[in-house]
Every structure is written in C-alpha cells, then in structure tokens.
Amino acid sequence: MSVTSSFEEERQAVQSSSVNLYRAVWRWHFYAGLLVLPFLITLAITGGLYLFKTELDALIHADLKQVEIGQQHVAASQMLAAALAAHPGTAVKFTDPPTQTSSAEITVNTPDGKLAVYVNPYSGTVLRSLPDRGTVMWTIRYLHSLKYFGTYARYAIEIAGGWSILLVATGIYLWWPRNQTGGVVSVRGTPKKRVFWRDTHAVTGIFVGFFIVFLAITGMPWSGVWGAKVNEWANGSNFGYPAGVRVDVPMSGNHLNDVAKTSWSLEQAQIPQSSTHDHDQHMETAVAPLPMDSNPTMQPIGIDKAIARFNELGLNPGYAVALPSTPTGVYSGSVYPNDLSKQRVIHLDQYSGEPLIDMGYADYGPLGKGLEWGINVHMGQEFGLANQIVLAIVCLAIILLAVSAGIMWWKRRPKGSLGVPPMPHDRTVFRGLLLLLIIGGVIFPLVGVSLIVMLALDWLYLKLRPARLA
C-alpha cells in the first residue's frame, strides 16, 4: 500500500468520524430544541416584561400605586383602620410606601379571600383594592414560573433549564467554524433562503449562549425538584437561618414564606415567637417559682410603635410587615430592594418591641450569597437599568432564535416528514454525548427522566420510520 493511499484512507476515516459525530450532535440539538423552544419563547416574553415590573406597575396601576406628595404620612394604624372600614376582615400585612409618591398597601383577609387595599399615606384614604397579588406584573410572574398550571407543570422549569444548557452546548459544536466563509459572525443570503435563517440562528445563538446558560442555572432555584432539594440542603438547619445568626429564641412552626414574600434563601426560615405571659412563667418556674403577687401581663406595642421600631433599626423603605395573628406572633419586617446589601429581615417581639432575629444579606452563607446574587441579576435588579436593557435584548434574541429555528426547520423538512436530522452510520459516537447527558441527568433529576423518555421516543421513531432515516 502506498503512503498516499494510507493518508487518503486515514483522511476519509477522520471525515467519516467527524460526519457521524456532527449528525449525532445535530440530532440531539434538534430534540433539545423541539422540547425547549416553546418554553423558551414563553419564558422570554414573560421574563422580558417582568424585568420592568416596577415601571410597568406604576404605569398600568397608576391610580392605586401613585399619589401626590403631601406634608407627612398619617399613622399606620389610621391606614389600617381605613382599609378595614372599606373592606371588613383581618389585616395581615402592611407594606410601607417605597417612595414619596407611592401608596401604602394593606393586605386584608376577608371572607371572600385576601385583598390588597391601597391607601394614600398622606390622607389615609382608600384608593382602590385588588385581589392579593392581583396586579398585572404578578400575573406575568406567575405565568413565567408556570405557577398557574400547578405543581407538576412547574417541574417543566427544571427540564427546560437542563435542556437549554444542552441546546447551547450542542449549538456551539454545530456553529464551530469548519472552513466556511460565512455564518460565523455574519449572515449570508436573504430571508428567502434557508442559509439566511441558518446563519441568523447560529450567530444569534453564539452571542447569547452564555446568557441562556446563566438564566437557566439562576432560574433553577424555582424548579420543582432540584430547587426544593437544594433549598432544603442549603437552609435545612438552624431553623433555616445561616450559621452565626442568633436563633436561641422560641420558634413557631410557621415559615417566613408562609406570611410574606421572601428571598429564596429564607423560604424555610422559621418565625420566632413573642414572649407571652404563659411562656415566661413556664420558663421561670423551671428555675424558681414565681412570687404569688407577680403580674407579668404584657400589652402588644401596636403597629405604630412597631413601624417606629423598624425605622429606628434602619429597615430600608418599602418594607413589608407581617402582623401578628396570635398571642405568640411577631411583627416580621422584611425588605428585598435591588441593592442586595440592603436585604433584611427583622422579627420584633410584639410586646417588648425588641428584635428577636435581625439578619441581612451579609449573614448568608457563600452558597446563599451566590444564589441570591444570581437571582437578583436574573430578575434585572443587580445592575439597574443596564441589567434590564441587556436582559431585555437577550429575551428578544431568544425569541429570534426560536423563530429562526422554526423557519429553518420548515425550509429543510422533507415533505410529509418530521425532518429529524439523520442518524449517524456509526452509532458508537453517541457514547460520549450520552455520557454528558447522563451526568446532567444525575445533577438535575427531572432532566434525567426526560432524557430517558426522549431516548425511548427516538428508538420508537427509528422502528416506525426506518426507511426515512437512511
């Protein structure tokens, strides 16, 4: 055999291996897109809108969110009384106006459900009410998280996130330059030609791929299985509070997420108890009997003194106060502004007004800080307007990716066929790809389950349509 012939056989073998690997990657890129793109379009539209939640809420609900600046705020108790007079029930939360032109929000539990009652803080008059979390932006948020569709539908977030990462990884391989003169950072052809949509898809994907992976990972804390388990693992001890935060106080069975919107890291944080007469007596008699003439009866400090105490402690404006509903309940003040360093939760004893637990972002552990930072960027808050604009562009690019993929597939698809990319002749090239998929499935369990389903469907497709796959 000549040297030239040997080189030629080796070159052909390398080319054959490369073609087989390309087909394998292309096939799974197609499957990942088929599974994920519908979710990505929905997430991109709702996420892009939610980036501007404050601005849109102020515009859409200007009649109940915005007020004219007056002399000074009336007492919080007066606002509560006005809200309850208009909507009889039980006040469960008071939200401080975040700006001078903002209204106060009183959450009232009525026989017909919870209401958000908006009050002018300068006059104490009721503006209007909505169902609790009934603003347009809360609707967008619930659509984004698939909360409207039940627990099982929310598991799709984890599946979509994991497959999005696969989509980007396989997309980079398919994009990688292979002696072509276009389609790397430029777009060839016109919209009438398939190459235009191929290049548009590839170039857009390579520029936003990093952001897709980032958004997928930082969106995982809200997923049904992975997010819940990581939250439990990260915050499962010390009553859900980071190590170093004082928790040597009586705790209730309620969690912070049950009474007020909170950060991901504090969803499992238990709420402490106020020191009631019975509790004090029990604790003291364990050491020495109380004198017969002692009278430790205590009176609640009330919402006005609680607000004054939160202000003294430096809680950032716009904080929400969950009101005590039992003799052992506490005033739980919490605020989660764009500036992570100002995130804070304070629980006040409802009788003494003393803070039982006072913690902020600086008290979180390394994992909590990292995840909260990622979530803050994900929501467009960490870097202000620049953060919003960049992620809005990314959301538009994701929609363009999905549209270009659909058009490209339609132009390539053989008539009467689904147009699945051809199976490689040498199927051993799937081994490395499957290994990566299995690793991803171990990290994200629901992704692993969906992988098994996709493998079964691909096998079934091969059995039913063998002639089309040659």
UniProtKB/TrEMBL annotation:
<dbReference type="Pfam" id="PF03929">
    <property type="entry name" value="PepSY_TM"/>
</dbReference>
<dbReference type="Pfam" id="PF03413">
    <property type="entry name" value="PepSY"/>
</dbReference>
<feature type="transmembrane region" description="Helical">
    <location>
        <begin position="430"/>
        <end position="462"/>
    </location>
</feature>
<protein>
    <recommendedName>
        <fullName>PepSY domain-containing protein</fullName>
    </recommendedName>
</protein>
<keyword id="KW-0472">Membrane</keyword>
<feature type="transmembrane region" description="Helical">
    <location>
        <begin position="196"/>
        <end position="217"/>
    </location>
</feature>
<keyword id="KW-0812">Transmembrane</keyword>
<keyword id="KW-1133">Transmembrane helix</keyword>
<feature type="transmembrane region" description="Helical">
    <location>
        <begin position="28"/>
        <end position="52"/>
    </location>
</feature>
<feature type="domain" description="PepSY">
    <location>
        <begin position="76"/>
        <end position="129"/>
    </location>
</feature>
<dbReference type="InterPro" id="IPR005625">
    <property type="entry name" value="PepSY-ass_TM"/>
</dbReference>
<feature type="transmembrane region" description="Helical">
    <location>
        <begin position="155"/>
        <end position="176"/>
    </location>
</feature>
<dbReference type="InterPro" id="IPR025711">
    <property type="entry name" value="PepSY"/>
</dbReference>
<feature type="transmembrane region" description="Helical">
    <location>
        <begin position="389"/>
        <end position="410"/>
    </location>
</feature>
